[in-house]
Design goal:
This protein has 286 residues and is α+β, with helices and mostly antiparallel strands. It has a 12-stranded antiparallel sheet with strand order 3-2-1-12-11-10-9-8-7-6-5-4. It comes from Geothermobacter hydrogeniphilus.
């Protein structure tokens, strides 16, 4: 009976320790959530030759003289207060399959760079995972740069469910047995993730930043596997729009079995902090 009465007390005593173990990680999460506070929403047009190629493949079996559908205008809408983004094909004769095609393509470029890592609102979930893991924190010095490494080792495989990073780059969420997080406490950025799965697969995500007066811009994500089978680079070129740094272009390079696949998109005609149409607001609602 005494041991049962002591259990809640021991759990309460453990909470500050868990908070201390993730202190630097959560500091970075809060910093990401506060980036560019003047940005409430944006609408942007996406330009790429990939859509035209997809339509060409889709209509390859039509007679030569049959009319082909025009490439739609593809727009992205993003809302800060919900953290949601929406990709839509717009224009005349946009049929459902074309909309579906655009949605599939857009998954490769749906990364919200400041909310991809350590998403806001998931602090309690991260603490819960830490409570289930053996956690070690170590300070390191890499060429004069001070880093802090937090390692979570799980006794049984877990599904991270987006608590530490979002989907979109190919970094798996399930069957995770070990997670390593490197942060730079001074610059308040995450520089590296290392993930081990139950089958022994080890993947590493490195993040490179560009320093501007407004802070650090996540300019490049590099995902690799220890066995060399995964090698993906996701690079962003930024530009100032109404004194806010936003992506001007993005490029995804995938190396697989000796082949190189490159997909690039440009972002043009930004409209920042505007009133969206009612149907867009509904789709971006919580």
């Amino acid at each position: 009976m005494k041991s049962l009465l002591l259990l809640p007390v021991l759990l309460l005593l453990a909470l500050p320790a868990l908070a201390d173990e993730l202190q630097s990680v959560e500091m970075v999460a809060r910093a990401y959530a506060k980036k560019q506070p003047a940005l409430e929403n944006y609408q942007v047009t996406i330009q790429t030759d990939q859509i035209a190629r997809m339509i060409e493949r889709m209509t390859a079996n039509l007679p030569v003289d049959a009319p082909r559908p025009e490439s739609p205008v593809v727009r992205k809408y993003w809302q800060r207060n919900t953290g949601k983004s929406l990709f839509r094909a717009e224009g005349p004769n946009v049929f459902p399959y074309m909309q579906e095609m655009v949605q599939r393509f857009s998954r490769d470029f749906a990364l919200e760079l400041y909310s991809f890592l350590l998403p806001a609102g998931r602090s309690a979930d991260r603490a819960a995972f830490a409570a289930r893991a053996e956690v070690k924190v170590a300070d390191n010095d890499l060429a004069g740069v001070k880093l802090q490494t937090t390692t979570l080792k799980f006794k049984t495989p877990v599904d991270l469910k987006g608590a530490f990073f979002a989907d979109g780059l190919g970094l798996p969420q399930r069957q995770v047995t070990r997670l390593v997080i490197d942060v730079n406490p001074e610059q308040e950025i995450l520089t590296r993730l290392e993930l081990t799965q139950v089958d022994g697969q080890v993947l590493t995500l490195e993040v490179r930043y560009r320093e501007v007066p407004a802070g650090q811009l996540p300019e490049e994500f590099m995902l690799t596997s220890l066995d060399g089978r995964v090698d993906t680079r996701f690079a962003t070129r930024f530009e100032l729009v109404d004194d806010i740094w936003l992506p001007a272009s993005q490029e995804r390079i995938v190396l697989h079995d000796g082949r190189k696949e490159v997909v690039k998109v440009d972002f043009v005609d930004y409209r920042v902090n505007v009133d969206f149409p009612r149907d867009i607001r509904k789709l971006l609602a919580p």
